[in-house]
Structure formats: C-alpha cells, structure tokens
Design a protein that fits this description.
Blueprint: H1 6-22, H2 24-33, H3 47-58, H4 70-85, E1 89-90, E2 98-108, E3 113-116, E4 119-121, E5 128-129, E6 135-143, H5 149-153, E7 161-165, H6 176-193, E8 198-202, H7 205-213, H8 216-220, E9 222-224, E10 239-242, H9 247-250, E11 256-261, E12 263-277, E13 288-294, E14 299-304, E15 307-310, H10 313-332, E16 338-344, H11 352-359, E17 368-374, E18 384-388, H12 398-412, E19 415-417, H13 436-439, E20 445-449, H14 468-487
Parallel strand pairs: 6-7, 7-8, 8-10, 13-16, 13-17, 17-20, 18-19
Antiparallel strand pairs: 1-12, 2-9, 2-12, 3-4, 3-11, 5-10, 6-11, 12-16, 14-15, 18-20
Length: 502
C-alpha cells in the first residue's frame, strides 16, 4: 500500500475543510436553540443513532481505517462532518476539526536475506523476523527440540543459531497471543545471552493459528512519534519465527543459517479530530471534560477465511459511535463546563494520537478537568463491563471514579469486572488505551470498556457482531458520568500520591 505524504493529504483535504467550515455558523445558531432545555440530554442517545454510526464507520467502506492511510483520513473527514452537522465547534489546529501529526515507521527492507540450509525464506511470507533490527549472521544451526533443560543440556549453543519448537500453555487469565509473543521474546533473550547467534522458533499447532493471523503486524514493523524509542535503528541477534510445516526439515543436521537484515525508517501523517461544545457558565466554560476515543484500526491485511478487511467494529468504531452520541447530547444541552471530544489517530500504533495531543493540546492542558475514554464497548455478556482506572494503583481520582460508579448504579447497573484493572493482570489492559497519556500527566482519567473477545484484531470484528443495546447503555453511562463532572461546582480532584506501577 502506498502511504500519502503530509503535503498530498493537506491538498486533498483543503476543499473538504472549506466545505466543513461553511456550515459551522448555521449549525451553531441551531444548537443555541436547545440551550434552554432543562436537565440533561440523556434521551437523545438512541440505539438507532448509535447503530447508524457504528455501521457507517465499522463497515467495509472505510477498509479498516489503518493509521497513516487515506482510509483513516476519509474516516476522519466523515467523523468531522458528523460533528459539524450536529453543531459542535472545531477545536483542532488552524480553526479546523483536525490536528495532523507524523508517524515514524521502521521496517525490514525487501533487500534483507534469510536462508536455512537449502531453504530460502522471505520475511513476511514464509518466515517472520520479530524485530526490525540490523543483523548479519552466518552460523551453524542446532535443533534443541522444545528447549527443555534436558534438551539444552545436550546441545552446544554458543556461536550457533538455535532452532526450538514452541510449546507451553498460558495461565487462564492471559491470552495465548500475549503468552506466545512474550515467551518467544523472553526465551530468545536468554538463549542469546547464553551465546546463541540467532533463535529460530518453529510453531506448534496453537502457535500456527497466530502465525497465519497475527504476523501482519510484524510485516509492517514498528511505529512511534518521530524521535520516540521505537524509531531507533540498532543491531540485534535476530529472532525468527517459522510455520509448523518447517518442523519436518528444521531437524536435519548440518544446516547453516544465513541472515542479513537491513531496516529503513520513514515518516507519514495521521490525524486527531477535535471538537467542542462551549459550556454555559461564564467561568467554568474555560474548563473541559474530554471525551476520548480512537478512529483507527488495522486496515486491509492478509485475508482470513476470504476476508481481508480488519474492520475494528468493536475496536474502536464502538467508541467512536459513543463519542458521536455524547457530542450530540452536549450539543442539544450544553453543561456548565465545556465538552471536548477527541478522536485520536494511530492508537493501534502505540497510542500515538493521544500521546501527541496530550503533549500538544489545542486547549490549555491545565483546563482539562477529566478524561473519559471509550474503548471496545459492545461485546461480551449484556450486563458486564469494566472501568479501567477504578482501583489502585491505576485510580488517580476517587472523585471521578465515584461519579462513574454512581451513574452506573443509577442508570445502567452493569456488573463491573475488577480483575482486568489490577496491577498484576498479565494483559496490562490499563496501559493499552488512550486515557493513559493523560493519566501520566496527572489528569483524572478512566476508561469505559467491555474487554477482549475472540474476534479482537481479526476480520471477524464486524458491526453485525456488536450488541447495540449494550453499546447504547455503555454510551449513556459514559455520558452521564461526564455530565456530572461537567456540572459539579468543584473540579474532580487528583488523588494525592498517585503513581502507576510502570
């Protein structure tokens, strides 16, 4: 896929931005008509609106909204048009709804070479190199079975390339994917420290499932904001992953591994979408309750069961549909404080949009009272949900959490899962969504989610699989919490001594 340049995207959107701006004044005038309504606008959050926006954004039309592609841009313009139509003011850069930023991508070049014995292997097809790092290895290969202590005791691995068959079972609370990648990285580091020149993993049958479906991310390489830690090009003994079919020939003695890896790094743009509804209180309108989500997903990748569009309906068209509904409710009935809606780009690349916006906010950082983040809000049991940031050490505002708990008790009555927010949960879910950069800046922050499911990051994450009534209730819960925070006399406070475990 060819990625657009920053300049070409600016040119492409110039006419669209003009079109969006023309309707702002009329829309604002219409929104003022609703300011005299009493109470909140909870009744404006309807299943029909949520479903419409979910299917529009999470369907095939936007092709999975991969960060840095025209698909993400088109989806972002569509979101901005919805915000304009419902009367929200632009709050991005230069009087627009947009805040552009650059992604830096580092990947293995097509000139890299890999062979084992008489088997030439191509990265991204029949083998995957786990990290885009410079490497040059020419070493004899030794097969150590499943790498048990007995297997390793019988082998001389110093100065060799070590081939090992993957094995093991994850603990019940850890997904196999994270167990797989974590185990390969940890054990490879141990073997390299013991003298191995390279480590070659061969899939067992459970790992083969992920070799076929999850390796598209390895093809793409690493991402970061320019100058970030994942942009560094370094030398490293390679870790290579092979399919289960390689087990038949990898055991043959006397084979040589030759691996020459080169990497390249380049920049291209992504975008945040930012809109606001000004508050009604002369003083408090200068403070903001930020409703956060992300619009990107995985885009078009290797087909699974004939489907190459990784839609990301739950991750995170559900959060986007919720944010649009919340924006619509605030437009109909503004609160005392201003509502700020931010759709973050490139979340799937390492929370890049939220990291960029929290470092370059379009409103004074100290004016952001709280961040309410919506992430994957429409799957699993109808009455279950989770609130990340609700317990120590992740909780940074008892006031904010109490508001959310009160809203849930009064309205939605979800049974709240507390395991996934624990510091010892192996998935580390708290650290994987857009509330995190704000929490690190000591801004009160929580995340509304219904947690992982088997379709996570697969082409099966489609709108038809979303529980729309549940998503609507999650949206109402998030809105009612934000409405309370936006109208209370005093700001929600940051807990004294807040410190994350990592």
């Amino acid at each position: 896929m060819r990625f657009p340049t920053f300049q070409s995207i600016r040119q492409l959107t110039s006419l669209l931005l003009l079109t969006l701006s023309l309707g702002v004044v009329a829309s604002h005038a219409q929104s003022k008509v609703n300011k005299t309504q009493s109470g909140n606008a909870l009744s404006s959050i309807t299943e029909s609106d949520v479903k419409r926006d979910l299917f529009a954004l999470g369907g095939d039309h936007f092709r999975g909204r991969e960060a840095g592609t025209l698909d993400e841009l088109k989806a972002s313009v569509w979101i901005a048009e919805q915000l304009r139509a419902m009367g929200l003011e632009p709050a991005g850069d230069d009087g627009t709804y947009f805040q552009f930023f650059h992604i830096q991508r580092t990947r293995i070049t097509e000139t890299s070479r890999l062979s084992i014995g008489n088997h030439p292997l191509t990265h991204g097809q029949d083998a995957f190199i786990l990290a885009p790092a410079i490497a040059s290895v020419d070493a004899p290969l030794v097969f150590v079975g499943k790498g048990t202590p007995d297997d390793l005791a019988k082998a001389d691995i110093k100065g060799k390339a070590v081939a090992i068959e993957f094995s093991g079972t994850p603990p019940a609370e850890l997904s196999y994917r994270r167990f797989l990648f974590g185990t390969m990285a940890r054990r490879a580091a141990e073997l390299i420290k013991a003298g191995a020149q390279a480590v070659v993993w061969v899939s067992n049958q459970p790992a083969q499932f992920y070799f076929e479906r999850w390796t598209t991310g390895l093809e793409r390489g690493r991402y970061d904001l320019p100058g970030g830690p994942n942009t560094r090009v370094f030398s490293q003994a390679p870790t290579i992953w092979l399919p289960s079919s390689a087990l038949e020939w990898i055991k043959q003695p006397g084979q040589q591994l030759t691996n020459v890896v080169n990497v390249e790094s380049f920049n291209y743009p992504s975008v945040n979408i930012v809109a606001k509804v000004p508050g009604t209180d002369p003083k408090l309108k200068n403070e903001y309750v930020l409703f956060s989500t992300h619009q990107d997903h995985d885009g078009v990748r290797r087909a699974v069961a004939g489907d190459s569009i990784w839609n990301g309906a739950d991750d995170n068209a559900t959060g986007c549909a919720a944010a649009l509904a919340i924006g619509r409710a605030f437009a109909q009935k503004p609160a005392k404080r201003s509502a700020l809606i931010v759709f973050h780009g490139a979340e799937e690349r390492g929370l890049l949009g939220s990291r960029y916006y929290s470092a370059h906010p379009t409103v004074p950082l100290e004016s952001i009272v709280a961040v309410l983040n919506g992430e994957m809000m429409g799957r699993n049991a109808p009455d279950s949900a989770a609130l990340l940031g609700s317990q120590l050490p992740h909780r940074n505002s008892l006031d904010l959490v109490s508001s959310a708990m009160t809203a849930n008790q009064a309205l939605t009555k979800f049974k709240l899962d507390t395991l996934w927010d624990r510091a010892d949960h192996p998935e580390g879910w708290y650290f994987r969504s857009d509330h995190l950069p704000y929490a690190r800046l000591n801004i009160p922050a929580i995340c509304f989610t219904t947690l992982l499911h088997p379709d996570y990051h697969t082409p099966k994450d489609e709108p038809e699989r979303i529980n729309v009534p549940k998503l609507t209730n999650m949206t109402r819960w998030m809105y009612l919490t934000g409405w309370d925070v936006a109208n209370r006399p005093q700001r929600v406070r940051v807990d004294e001594g807040f410190k994350l475990e990592r």
